Amino acid sequence: MDPVRIVIVGGSFGGLTAAYELRRRLNPQRAEITLLAKDGEFRFVPSFPWVATGRRRLEQISFPLAGALASRQVRFAKETVTHIDTATKVVATDAAEHPYDFLVVATGHRSANEAVSGLGPFDGPGHSPMSAGETEELAQAIRRLLAEPGPVVIGAAPGASCIGPVYELAFELDHLLRRRGLRHQVPISLLTPEPFLGHMGMGGAGTIRQLLEAALEERDIAYRTSAAITRISEESVETADTAPTPSVCSIIIPPLAGVEAVATSEGLANPKGFVPVDDHYRHAVADGVYAVGVAVALPPVDATAVPVNFPKTGHMTEQMAKIVAADLAARLEGREAPTAELSARCILDMGNRAAYLAVDPVRPPRNRIPTVSEGRPWLVAKMAFERAYLAFARRGKLVPTALGW
User: How far apart are the first and last CA of the chain?
Assistant: First the structure.
């Protein structure tokens, strides 16, 4: 019997976890696994705020995909996917065509920077940490800020789903400026579309709202909720309902959209470019297609005055990928694997300490009272987890993710 052909598109948390888990369950005689990614490097995305503030260099949180995948007998091709034909089961790239029996879409996102006028960083004054290139550009902007201090705005645009880095960057920048003796020269404002602090697209959790309110007020970081950012200029950030907030360095998280190849492939995605799936993360219609991570279409947990979308963290992405691997392997044996609702565990860097948040499930109401804890040990744990994850993943293994990120 010929091995089944499994193609994975995307080389970040979703793609890498799917590849490792599928190979753990299916030997090379049973499955030929190919991972396609436009970038040859895996990057630990949760550490992008540390790259932006100078605590890490990009090369410290990266490793080549080819060697790591080869150690698990997974083929790797550094190619850009241009089209997915779900009828003929072929993934077309800029270099070749890859037929598949099963496809895992783990492409991540496209930053919809066009949603806010002036949100660059390469065609406007606004900055964002949503890709490696943007993060390195933001790091340069922060170095300029240290040389020429002035007001800063950190926030998220309407429809954003990645709110955690807003808080992390505000706290980390505050900590950096205090260590440099410059904090008194840099007013920091936080603008969020959330109806209250700590909503984070999941309706809030336990006492995280009170923790964040106290931490921002303790650090003299001004904040405004239900803020709809509309425009970024060289001097300010504008919102829909109030006067502009002065800013010489504006860091704004954009809303996310599906990547072009997924969004334009017929019958694959919804109008926003995300892939509709069932509770096993199988495509709603297309045979043999799965999706994980940011590529998945997930509705918001509630309606808010300014849109806030469902969060998708690395921890949740790994859960999806493991559910997919279990289901795909079970289908090959003529059975169906169990599934589970997503939970969330993350450690939020607060500069000189960190906060730990655990919710199960993500969508309220929840089976368990959320865990919220704060202290220096959580910051140490976050640093240790980053190093452990990279050390294991570059050797073709996955580190246990009980802490999340």
Answer: 41
pLDDT tens-digit map of 71-84: 999 999 999 999 99
Q: What positions carry a catalytic annotation?
A: 162, 346
For 216-260, the pLDDT digits (tens) are: 999 999 999 999 999 999 999 999 989 999 999 999 999 999 999
Domains 4-111+257-340 and 115-255 in one fold? yes
Q: What pTM was computed for the model?
A: 0.95
DSSP 157: -
CATH class (in words) of the domain with range 4-111+257-340:
alpha beta
Range 115-255: architecture per CATH? 3-Layer(bba) Sandwich (3.50)
Written as six digits, the tokens of 192 are 């969020």
Domain ranges of the chain: 4-111+257-340, 115-255
Give the CA angle between residues 137, 141, 144 to the nearest 5°. 140
Task: Provide the residue type at 53 as one letter.
Answer: T
State the pLDDT confidence band at 400, using cuts at 50, 70 and 90.
low
Residue type, 114: E
